Each structure stands twice: as structure tokens, then as C-alpha cells.
Amino acid sequence: MSAVFESAVPALAREERIEFTATGGEYFRIWIVNLLLTIVTLGVYSAWAKVRRNQYFYASTRLAGSTFEYHGKPLAILRGRVVGVILLGAYQAALRYHPPTAGIVLLLIAGVMPWLVWKSLQFALHNSSYRGVRFGFRGSWKGAYLYYLGLPLLAGLTLGLLYPLVHQRIKRFQHAESRYGTTHFAFDAPVGQFYKVYGILVGLLVLGGGVAFGVVAGLAGGVAALNGGTADIAVRAGQVLIVFAGVLGWYAFTLCVVWAFMAILQNLIWNHTQLGPHRFRSTMTWPRLAGLYITNTLAIVCTLGLFIPFAQVRALKYRLESTTLVVAGSLDDVVAAKGGDVNAVGESVADLAGFDLAL
Amino acid sequence: MQGDAQREVPGRYYDGITSRAHRVVLRVENGEACLAGEAERRVPLAQVRVSERTAHAPRKLTFADEACFEPDQRAALEALLHATGHRDSAVVRMQQSWRAVVIALGTLLLVLAVGYLYVLPAGAKLAARLLPVSVERQLGQGLLGVLDRRVFDASKLPAARRAALAQAFARMAPPRDGAPPYQLVFRHSRIGPNAFALPSGDIVLTDQLVELLRDDHAILATLAHELGHLHERHLTRRLIQGSVVAAAGTVLFGDASALVAGLPALALDLRYSREAEQEADDYAAAMLRRNGIGLVHLERLFTALQELEDELGAPPPYLSSHPPSAERLARLRQQLD
Ligand SMILES: [Zn+2]
């Protein structure tokens, strides 16, 4: 019935919610086996572990009745990990045994990092497919150097004032240069919105900090005043308690602000992302995100880490399921980037046969 | 193979060229996967990749040209795969069985315990021994500079007293050959009596400790303990073990929680440093014995530290990097018997 309806009224937008069917119990089993084999093989299996995990998560992600597929090859991932370990190892060794060299190694790492990030973006997208059509990344390595090295340096020079702009540019680079088959993603979140969100974050932190400091100072002073200005042990203990409660309250407040910030930012980014004519909609709310993180952290601590796979599935489920694709028309007409289009992207696709750097 | 013909799996076929879904029915005939419906296709089974089995995600068939088939219902495809004799890999079968996973968890804990208790200390010891002394020296350089800026002033002891102590210690033979070169460093401390060895070969002794002990042989016992740390390369071993534990923690817990990853590493480090202290105590005892100095002077060191602890209120033993002096005393007395 619905198929008939769809073809009869093609212009009507309909909403397709992303569904995530993975369960903590099943991922726990995959996780344990992955861990055991990774430890026993001194880390070599971690590349295979990543493929198994991604294949499970991709296959569990369902949009409009179809699931995603992960094509990454373990050897390519292993290669990326070896490069990462060598870079970090060289840096650590230099830092320990000859600090001046560490600076040079750090510069070297900073120099190749944008290129590695660029390769990883290509790898991640190229190895994802939906309905038999692969994703891709067409952004250039020059763009990667601009957005992952040039602009962040500039933001550092301006003491972070440019940071919201850099964040917006990086997201624009990632999203607008991605494609599904030959259909391109688009990203139109204005810089002003990023500044607004960051402004709210900083404002809340400053305001919260001021209020917390004022309340603590007032209460601590009040306790002393009640006692006639004497500073005996009971008063001092009371003051310590107030300061302790203040620090704890401040910590909780900061966490809530950060979670709210993450939710708002995620919504901002996805609400301004488009795939061809189809829009995304993100409806994350910070109380739910905060509840999720608080319960996850408590459960991980109480189970000495055994809850980690459950926590990851819960977090991923919330993230994915708060995203909707507003389909304009039909999802049927995306063409794979094969044949004629290969020349445009083929050069990079060929030598990206695989390289994945996940640090 | 005859039963296969009757098994039909309805599903969607994506041709790898567009995202369009084709309604098809999958059958297996003569060792070929056959699709019929909105798309027709026959492919030898050997060229079809089957995604791994999971409990909730659908299984997919992928062809060499990236075309793929998604069944409407997983059960039907599962039955067809079973009929064609498709077998999951050992790892996949392990992942699907709770029993295998419990065994895997047990094995994992066993491997970690054995690795931590036996392999890691032995490996770190070996690695520290293989590390050239020059490299080790560079490791500790700069540390003294930092300490001088933060906690130390120049020593207020008379130069003659310092020279006498240094000469007396230089005359002592180490309990076994191969003791590394060291230099004695006298400092006035802003944080009370202390003595420690840096990987650079500096043995730092504070004026306050010299005044506290008042017995030159007890001071020599202290220096012997610190030389033991250098000779056994404790700090380097500790650094190596710390890096390995941190790396393993990252693998085990990921970035799920810095707290969860940090706590075991801290606990492991504390346990290790207690063992290192015992080794250094034994080294000091052996050095005193070899040079004809009574162990009673080592005992005096511990007693002095014990009194200091009683005065200040000792930290709980399990949180302290040094074992409580009472415990060290008891251990020493056992050796004396
Ligand atoms: Zn010691």
C-alpha cells in the first residue's frame, strides 16, 4: 500500500527515523572476544576487532528499511595503526630521551596530521555503503591542511576567538565534501550560529562560576559571622564543607553545561545538513543526554568496566535515533559514483585502497 | 541440494549502480545464487560474500560488483544458508555463544593476571637491563633542576661533613658487581627529611635526614638503599611498566572513562613500588653485611622513619608508595634471625 502511495504522491516529504537495533548483550559478546584476541595477539588483532565492531554497528543501523554496510579491510586499518603507533612512539621516546628532538617530532606530526586526517575521512566514507551504493569524500588535501592546521593555528593566535569559526569550517569541510554515490551532501549552518552556541557555553560557565563563587563565599562568611567572627575548628570545618559542596556543585553544573552544549551543537550541525534534496533533522535534548552519560558512567564504575559495551550501544542508539532524514521524493534515485564519475574521484580512491588512522 | 530448490527467500536487491530497491526472490540452484523478480541474476556461491551472523542485524549477501541482497526476514536466509552448508568462522561462533564468551572472559582475566604478575615485571626488568645507561641517564636529567627550583635549597651542611660522608660511602663495596656510577647530591629541603635516587644517577640526600639520623652508618644504609634503586633500575622499570599498563588500559577500557582506566593503573603502580622498596631494602642489607656494618644501623633508619610517621600520622599502608616502617622493621628482624 505504502509503495503505491509513495509513487502516487512523490513530492510529499516523509520522515525516516534512523533505527539502531544493536543490543548491549550482543555487543558485549563481540567486545569480550575482540578484547581477548587483541590482548593475546599483542594488539595486532585490534584491526580485525575494529572491522567486526563496525560491521555489527553498521548492519544494525537501519534507515527506510535498509541497513548500512562497512567494507573496511583489517590490513589497511592495521597499517594505519602501525603508523599511528610509530608517530606516537617516536614522540614519546624523543620526549623522554631527548626533549629537543621531541619538538621536531611534534612539528613533523603536526605537519602530516592533516594529510592523515584527510586519508582517514576518505577511508571511513569510502568504506561505508547503503543500498549497495558507497559514500565518498571529495575534499582535497589542501583543504585538510587549511582546516586542520592553518585555521586552528590562527585560532590559537587569536586566543580562541576564531575557534567557533574554525569549528564551523571543519564541519562544513567534512559534510559538504561528502557524497553518497554521486549525490552530494550540503552544509549551511551559519558561522553566527556557532558563535551563538559557543557564546552561550562561555556565558553559562562564567555566570555559573560567578554564582558558585558568590554563594560559597557568602555562606562561608556567614558561618563565621554567626559565630561572632571567631574562627574555631567547627567554623573552619563548616567552611571546608561549604567549599567542598561548592566545588562539587560547580563540577556537576559544568558537566550539564557541556552536555547541553554537545546536544545543541549536534542539533545545529545536523539540522543544517542536507543530502541532495533530503534534509536531516536532529532532536537531541540535553536532559536525556545528561541522564544517559550519568547512568553510563555510574554503571561502568560499579561494574568495573564490564558495562562499557552496553554504555557504548546506549550512547550510539540515542545519538543515531535522534536523527531523522526528511526524505523529499524518493531515496531510490541515487547513482553510485562509478564509470564516468570515477575519473574525478578515482585517483584518490585508487590509492586509498585503504588507510585508516584512528588515534 | 535437492531441498534447496524449494527454499525461497524474498528480499530486496540493490544492483550497486543505483540505490533503487528491486523486489526479488533468492534461491540456490546447482551451487549458484539465483535472483528472480524485478532483477534476474545467477552468481556462483563461491563469489558471494555473506555478512557475519548476528542476533539482531539482518544478514546480507554481497556480490563482487558490490551489488547486494537484503532479505525481508532473517530467519528465511538463515535457513537457506544452513541448507547450503554455510558455516560461520570460529570467532563468529564464539561471539554468538554466552558460554564461549564466559570462557573468553575467564581466559582474558587469566592472561591479564599472569601478564601483570609475571610477564610484565620480567619484561620490564629485561628491557631496563638492555637499555644503555646513557639513555637511562638522559631520562632523569632535568628532574633535579625542577626539584631545585621547587623544593630544594643549597645544603647547609659543612663541606667537610659532606665530603666525609661521600668518601665513606665511596669506600663501601656494593653487594654485587656492576653497580652504576652515581653522584651524591646534598640539599636543604623545604619538605622535611628525604632521600631518593634519580635515573640520572643522582642520589639526593637532604640535610634534614642527616640531622634526623645522627648516625653515620645509618646514613650509609640509606645511601645503600638508594644505590639499590639505581642498581636494580627501579625507576626505568617503573616507567616501562607504567607505559605498558597505560597502553593496556586504553585497549581495555578505551576512552570510555578516564577514571576507570586510571584507577587500576594507579593501584598496579603502588603495588609495584612496594616491591621495589623491598628489593632496595634487601640490597642495602646485603651491602652493609658485605662491608662489615651491622644491620642494626639499617634498623635505626627504619626506627627513625617510624618515629617520624608516628609524629606526623602515617598514611594508610595500601596508599603509601613506601611500605610502613613497622613492616620494613619486621621484615628486617626476620632476616636477622
Ligand atoms: Zn626507596
From TrEMBL, chain A:
Q: Which InterPro entries match?
A: DUF898
Domain of life of the organism encoding this protein: Bacteria
Pfam families for the chain: DUF898
**Record's keyword terms, sorted:** Membrane, Transmembrane, Transmembrane helix
Transmembrane regions listed in the UniProt entry: 28-48, 101-125, 145-166, 197-228, 240-270, 290-311
* Protein name (Swiss-Prot/TrEMBL): YjgN family protein
- What species was this sequence derived from? Pseudoduganella chitinolytica
Q: What is the lineage of its organism?
A: Bacteria, Pseudomonadati, Pseudomonadota, Betaproteobacteria, Burkholderiales
From TrEMBL, chain B:
Q: Which cofactor does it need?
A: Zn(2+)
Give the source's domain of life in one word: Bacteria
Q: Which organism is it from?
A: Pseudoduganella chitinolytica
Note on cofactor? Binds 1 zinc ion per subunit.
Describe the location of the DUF7092 domain by residue ranges.
Answer: 9-83
What does the UniProt keyword field contain?
Answer: Hydrolase, Membrane, Metal-binding, Metalloprotease, Protease, Transmembrane, Transmembrane helix, Zinc
Q: What is this protein called?
A: M48 family metallopeptidase
Family as reported in the entry's similarity comment: Belongs to the peptidase M48 family.
